[in-house]
Design brief:
By secondary structure, the protein is of the alpha+beta class. Helix 1 packs across helix 4. The chain starts with 10 loop residues before the first strand and ends with a helix. The longest helix is centred in the C-terminal third of the chain and has 22 residues. The protein has a single domain, classed as HIT-like (HIT family, subunit A, 2-Layer Sandwich), CATH 3.30.428. Strand 9 and strand 10 form a beta hairpin. The strands form three sheets. It has a nine-stranded antiparallel beta sheet, with helices on both faces.
């Protein structure tokens, strides 16, 4: 077979983490685009919203009142998807109809008492407080004998289903390892068995050497648009040294991850001069008591925007029925994000007004 031009020829790319493929159609980026490009608008947001159920001192569902918190604030989700006291049981009606109960806990993490901030607008030391909160929750929840997996994540923006703009994320601690992390675990385990090396350590080293898909790096982490990216501006933050889980991070790594989270968020926001929506989450070693030498912590970003602040990618048609497909290459997306400033656009606009 002849070599292909990844920037010209339709092709598919392999995701070694999940074992799945993505179709790429770079020739389609030459299609004319006559859509609207919005001018950035500075919306004045409240630092404190008396109607927000996440702001300090305000009332939540069921009459519970938030404390007058000054940094991060964690509480059990008032509308949790999983419950700690769920009775254990199974349902089976032949091989085709099966179900089983699952125990777990769901928490909400308020990143800041200020209603008008996001991770990209917070200072690195403030984000460090969020990361340390994640560390504490991973340790404490992971000590429970029935908790085997902890999913830390943030949904940002109404388009991602976020019902409240107050800066916050969630933690789901669960009895089972969900499908996607389970796939990643299996493929990392197989890679370690076959190569004797950690998959994502090898991947980070090769991305750093190439530079084609690197967005930025610091002493401890590198941000890339992965070779197998599905979403137009999908990104990953990868450690540059072995790191199985967030509780193993040194103070230096906490600071550097906080720096990476801020820089990634700022570049996203600056791309289309908007508060960039995304789902972001950390994949890391389970808390099932096993050693998990195969695991390497990593952060996934899945943003839906495609061409502007209002034009998003839809996973429909062929992508629902066949496999994911994208037009712009991962290399093209990385180049666009590399060109973005790390000074937030709202600061620049504010100075001009």
């Amino acid at each position: 077979m002849s070599k292909i031009d990844l920037q010209e020829n339709p092709h598919r790319r392999y995701n070694p983490l999940t074992g799945e493929w993505i179709k790429v159609s770079p020739h389609r980026t030459k299609r004319p685009w006559n859509g609207q490009l919005e001018k950035p608008v500075l919306d004045k947001k409240l630092e404190f919203d008396p109607t927000c159920y996440l702001c300090p001192g305000n009332e939540r569902a069921g009459g519970l009142k938030n404390p007058d918190y000054k940094e991060t604030f964690v509480f059990k989700n008032d509308f949790a998807a999983l419950l700690e006291d769920t009775p254990q049981g199974n349902y089976k009606d032949g091989d085709l109809f099966q179900a089983q109960t699952e125990r777990g806990l769901c928490k909400v993490v308020c990143f800041s008492p200020r209603h008008d901030l996001t991770l990209s607008l917070m200072e690195v030391p403030q984000i460090g407080g969020v990361v340390r909160t994640w560390q504490n929750e991973y340790r404490e929840l992971g000590q429970k004998d029935f908790i085997n997996h902890i999913q830390i994540f943030e949904n940002r923006g109404a388009v991602m289903g976020c019902s409240n703009p107050h800066p916050h994320g969630q933690i789901w601690a669960e009895e089972i390892i969900p499908d996607i992390p389970a796939k990643e675990q299996e493929n990392q385990k197989n890679y370690l068995k076959d190569k004797g090396r950690v998959l994502l350590m090898d991947y980070a080293e090769k991305e750093m050497a190439s530079g084609k898909r690197v967005i930025f790096s610091n002493d401890s982490f590198v941000a890339v648009v992965p070779f197998w990216a599905v979403w137009p501006y999908e990104a990953m933050i990868l450690p540059l040294s072995p790191l199985k889980s967030i509780d193993q991070m040194s103070d230096k790594q906490v600071t550097d991850l906080s720096d990476a989270l801020k820089r990634m968020g700022t570049r996203f926001d600056n791309l289309f001069k908007t508060s960039f929506p995304y789902s972001m989450g950390i994949h890391q070693a389970p808390t099932d008591g096993e050693d998990h030498e195969e695991w390497q912590l990593h952060v996934h970003y899945y943003p839906p925007l495609l061409r502007s602040a209002s034009v998003k990618k839809f996973m429909v048609g062929y992508e629902m029925l066949g496999m994911p497909q994208r037009d712009i290459t991962a290399e093209g997306s990385a180049a666009s994000l590399r060109q973005c400033s790390e000074e937030h656009y709202t600061i620049t606009l504010g100075e001009k007004q």
